[in-house]
Task: inverse folding
């Protein structure tokens, strides 16, 4: 059985007990996003992880029971590869850089983690349908995980969503509704629809189980670094710095939650510094952090990194809090820097990242240049999505290929 015992609002401190049959979203007192509360003593009595190559290896630390569906993509989310990026180390003058490639998830993005856990929760509740707003990745993740479990899904996406992502939604059998508006418009409409039709809402941040799925990346980072570096003691190592791209803030706050769990359990000795990276055209969290503000002021988002293009970050306050409490920082990068990062990751680390995923590396390069990260620090860069999600941007990031007549002379001339 899950060790989940309740929920706590970090904004106002309101707590409520967990009830298996109760649907819970935001705080009833202030509307803030909720943190899950666990019985850590019960977790300590069991194993740290199970022998399963997915996020379900951490079932004792998750807020749901085993959903079953072994042998399906629902059981394949997570446990993505972690690489040592030695050529990037040389390029930036850093001692240790690691890349966590979540583009290798079943639907090719980090969002599979949240959707797998939300679908498991929907199964417990007996939900008739799951709905979410998405610029593409969250919707594709929900559509894929829901298809694996046979649960109907409805996705509301902005009409400007990349065609490749919309195609994923449709191929997974989801009901897709394109909204003539922004992601934020789709988000609000999704909440209304869930209330009106009795659907279970996956919306990022709004549903507390989304961050619980995303926190599993922190568990994997710690355990995979332990395997890679063969520590002599019983503590899992963690990087000094973790760089994460930020749109609505839920990935950053989820990873923070994961490291908090590990530290509270005594399985790690410290917390990493978190560096949130935002695109210049969608930097509401970075602005709030820089101004030391306690609220997030919406922006009019404009960036090629569609997955992090958000007017009002729905989990922005927790993301800003995560950065502040870990002594981290926010870094803002341009679309040109994001395109350059896509090419660099491919050429120097053999990782094909979509714009939002490459944003994290662009932020690392900028943070190093600004003196925010010491050369001795170990750094983990989180790639959140595969470049095949946005081929148009990938083509912009690289030169045009050579084109020749089919003969050796033409090839010699081109190569010369």
Result:
């Amino acid at each position: 059985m899950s060790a989940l015992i309740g929920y706590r609002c970090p904004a106002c401190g309101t707590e409520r007990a967990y009830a298996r049959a109760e649907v819970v979203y935001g705080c009833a007192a202030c509307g803030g996003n909720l943190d899950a509360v666990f019985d850590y003593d019960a977790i300590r009595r069991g194993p740290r992880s199970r022998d399963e190559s997915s996020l379900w290896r951490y079932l004792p630390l998750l807020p749901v029971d085993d959903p079953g569906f072994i042998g399906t993509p629902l059981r394949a989310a997570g446990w993505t590869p972690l690489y040592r990026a030695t050529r990037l180390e040389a390029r930036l003058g850093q001692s240790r850089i690691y890349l966590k490639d979540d583009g290798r998830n079943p639907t090719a993005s980090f969002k599979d983690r949240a959707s797998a856990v939300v679908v498991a929760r929907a199964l417990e509740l007996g939900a008739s349908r799951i709905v979410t707003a998405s610029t593409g990745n969250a919707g594709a993740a929900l559509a894929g995980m829901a298809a694996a479990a046979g649960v109907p899904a409805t996705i509301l996406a902005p009409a400007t969503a990349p065609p490749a992502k919309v195609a994923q939604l449709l191929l997974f059998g989801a009901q897709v509704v394109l909204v003539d508006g922004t992601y934020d418009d789709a988000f609000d409409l999704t909440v209304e629809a869930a209330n009106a039709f009795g659907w279970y809402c996956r919306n990022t941040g709004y549903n507390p189980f989304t961050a619980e799925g995303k926190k599993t990346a922190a568990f994997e980072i710690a355990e995979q670094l332990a395997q890679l570096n063969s520590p002599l003691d019983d503590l899992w190592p963690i990087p000094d710095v973790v760089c994460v791209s930020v749109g609505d803030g839920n990935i950053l706050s989820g990873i923070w939650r994961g490291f908090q769990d590990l530290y509270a359990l005594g399985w790690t000795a410290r917390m990493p510094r978190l560096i949130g990276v935002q695109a210049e055209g969608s930097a509401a969290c970075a602005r709030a952090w820089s101004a030391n503000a306690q609220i997030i002021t919406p922006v009019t988002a404009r960036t090629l990194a569609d997955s992090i293009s958000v007017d009002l970050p729905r989990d922005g306050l927790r993301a800003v809090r995560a950065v502040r409490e870990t002594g981290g920082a926010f870094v803002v990068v341009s679309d040109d820097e994001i395109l350059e990062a896509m090419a660099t990751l491919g050429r120097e680390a053999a990782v094909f990242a979509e714009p939002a995923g490459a944003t994290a590396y662009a932020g690392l390069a900028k943070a190093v240049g600004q003196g925010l990260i010491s050369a001795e620090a170990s750094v983990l860069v989180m790639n959140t999505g595969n470049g095949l999600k946005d081929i148009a941007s990938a083509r912009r990031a690289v030169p045009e290929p050579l084109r020749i007549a089919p003969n050796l002379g033409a090839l010699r001339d081109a190569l010369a």
